[in-house]
User: Fold DUF4090 family protein from Gloeocapsopsis crepidinum LEGE 06123.
Amino acid sequence: MTSQNSMNQTTGADAVDVAIASGTDFDGTPIPSAKLELYRQVMALEAGRQRSGVSNTMRSRIVRIGAKHISQVELNQMLIDADFAPLKDKEIAFYYGVK
Assistant:
């Protein structure tokens, strides 16, 4: 059996970007052109948006991704320890609310 090459990699921060760029989902099926076009349109809008600063973007990414892996109490303390603003009520409700 051969090892997985980089085109079949499904882990890591840029795995989805690689798949989108190739137009192929992780299972090898083509991503429908309508989905790719809509994604590209929205990403082009985002690319043109004025940024509020690197620290704000870093915090947003930490919260968005960290909430998937880290408990609310722990993530909140980690933010405070790193001198970021603690979790906001709306972030807690969105990421940790009852599902």
